Amino acid sequence: MQTEKVRLAIIGCGGMAGAHLNAYIGLKNRGIDIFDFVAMCDVDTDRAKGFAVRAAEVQGGVEPKVYGDIDKMLEEETLDGADICGPHFLHHSLAIACFEAGVDVIVEKPLGVTVRAGWKMIKSAEAHNRILATAEQVRRWVGPRTVEWLINKEKRIGAPRMFFRQSVSGTNKDPENLLRDEMTTWRKDKLTSGGNGIIDGGVHYIDLLIYFFGEPDEVYARSENLNQYQFKEAGGNHVPQTVEDTALATITFKSGVIGQWVNTGAAPGRSIGYNSYHGSIGSIYSTGGYPQSPELQLWDGNVDDPDTLQRTYMASLGPEEKGRLFPHGITEGVMLEVYDFLDAVRTRRRPELDGVDGLKAQAVCNAIYESGWLGQAVKFDDVYNDRVTGYQDEINERWEI
Ligand SMILES: NC(=O)c1ccc[n+]([C@@H]2O[C@H](COP(=O)([O-])OP(=O)(O)OC[C@H]3O[C@@H](n4cnc5c(N)ncnc54)[C@H](O)[C@@H]3O)[C@@H](O)[C@H]2O)c1
Fold first, then answer.
1. The predicted structure's pLDDT at residue 174
2. Which three-class secondary structure string do you get for 345-368?
3. What is the CATH number of domain 6-138+331-353?
4. How far is the CA of 53 from the centre of ligand 1 (A)?
5. What is the rounded end-to-end Cα distance, in angstroms, of the chain?
6. For the chain, what are the domain ranges?
7. Which tens digits make up the pLDDT trace of 276-308?
8. Which one of 43, 98, 141, 200 would you pick to mutate in the ligand 1 pocket, going by the greatest count of ligand atoms within 8 A of its CB?
9. pLDDT for 338-357, tens place per residue?
10. How far is the CA of 17 from the centre of ligand 1 (A)?
11. What distance in angstroms lies between residue 90's CA and the mean position of ligand 1's atoms?
């Protein structure tokens, strides 16, 4: 079955939703006219209205309807798909409301605020025979696709052995002053975010590790709130941050690959940022948060530069694979992820990253918190299957998950 055009809503019209909106508009501007913006929903209706005005520009002046309440929107509109970009603690309730109304969903990472929230989403999508896609753009970039090709298809580093990632930075404001002028957001509160950098941006990194090395096995980690910052509430009072700013994790995979991830925003001074992947005959190295610019170096000192590697990778793709990974020649990650969702909705196929994929990547992040909570290593399977939950218990209790 092929739906003519996907009748689409965006739910949560904040920062990241702006990147999604740009990506959908980019599709229309390329002549890929496979959807209509039907509704924009945000509790802040001014934001939703701003999105509606921009959407109208690429659909002949037809403005999507603006809603401040998802239930009203689902009652009044006939939708095929919804793109959920709300805060983490709402992902499950927003997504489940959509499934119950017969609407397919793409939801921003991490899938849910806890593992249990993620399972509820997966089960609800299954029960209502709906598509649940996790928005995950990083692996879709040419750099990470090239790394996967080098490791798994070309076997250029030999047998994969180890990985390392350091993301080390700190404040450039007076570190002794714990009272921050910035307003607190849902990100600084454990109950609304589920955690800080590890589960927020970090889930992209774990998705890459799973893409490169397969199923995780065990996690040992420490996670700390070293800065102890206090941010301002709406009323002007300072409230403590209740999520980590630092985590050090050792992660093993069922294949035997082992590695370390250091993620801190509590180390003022010189910052460090790199990714590396090591095998029995060589390594792949990239500066920055993700392997966007991978360099290959073999045991004999031979080096292949990032541009050559990425060009060779793109040239190696046959028409079917190129059409699947970079449809219409698109190489921009968010545009690729929203296209993948729209195409999955129209053709009733599985998106590249469904709810289970999203939950697996998220569960490694949860395992880092659970290991820190317990002070001992945890098995990935125990966290993924919601058997180890100490860190997450108060979040599940707060939202009755
Ligand atoms: N993929 C990426 O690179 C990336 C980057 C940033 C954020 N994100 C993800 O995107 C999501 C949103 O993050 P953000 O930075 O855009 O946050 P944000 O706070 O800027 O936006 C969230 C929006 O949701 C709205 N909202 C709150 N409650 C709502 C409700 N009940 N119904 C409808 N709308 C509601 C808020 O008013 C706000 O406009 C998160 O899951 C986050 O992790 C992903």
1. 86
2. HHHCCCCCCEHHHHHHHHHHHHHH
3. 3.40.50.720
4. 19
5. 35
6. 6-138+331-353, 139-318
7. 999 999 999 999 889 999 999 999 999 999 999
8. 43
9. 999 999 999 999 999 999 99
10. 7
11. 9
